[in-house]
Amino acid sequence: MTEAERQAKRPRPAMVREPRGRAAPGPPPSPWANPTALAILVAAVGIAGNALVAQMNGMASRAQERDRAEYARVLEMIKVGDPDVAAANLEMLLESGLYRDESGKLKAYLDGREKGAGAFLPTPSGTVAGPTIDADGRRILEVHQEDAPWLRVALGEDGVREVAGPGSNPRILEYLRTVPLSEALQSSDDTPWNGAYLNWVFDQAGIQGVESLAGRDWERWGEALDEARPGAVVILWRGANSASAQRHVGFYVGPGPSPRTIRVLGGNTRDMIAIGVVSEDRVVGYRWPGVR
Q: Which of 50, 65, 118, 290 could form a disulfide with 83 if both were Cys (CB 3.0 to 4.6 A apart)?
């Protein structure tokens, strides 16, 4: 047997054929195509989002708590019954950093505030924390006590104010009892008492006052002054305009801090005995008791 015949009889390896219609292998499938994996991803994103929202809510909550604490400090600082004491307390809050005042409004308010004016709240007991007549006004009136001796009595009432709530300040009721009134009006410091305060002061000084709460009655009391004098009774119109029949009365202190203004010591001024600043345009007249 020749070599060629031997090669022909040797078994040949079988050929492996690819099945017809099968596509060539491609890239491996994405793991997120699996519904389970996708659900895990969504849950993870949700948890992360909730954590972020919770963190933001926590920051907002802390900011709100800080703001509430600052507002509470401000309210406590002005519960002193006096605008000047309240302003001093607010300045302390700013200087100590206990109030941030990011808008700058509180500093602007304090810078523009006039002495004896501004925001305050009554003390819980309804009494005034400290004097209500400012030092400058007191100094001016004390100088003129010899010329106007009733000023000693008027200044001695420094600190008297209405009681917050249903009660009444007994001192104010004393003022009201110098004026013929009904028992109901004499029993409440809600009764307008600025005229009664003046009447009480003159009564204590041995001078006949006006037995009336009507401010217009002071226009006929004593003698008219051509010029204002410290201690003189000043009659002011109040209401919508100068044609108003309503009046407020007090003691003239001196010129105000700005042109055409005056300072007046009176009762029932911001619910207390205090010095206020008013326009000269409101002056109806000045009166002096008896013969000058």
A: 118
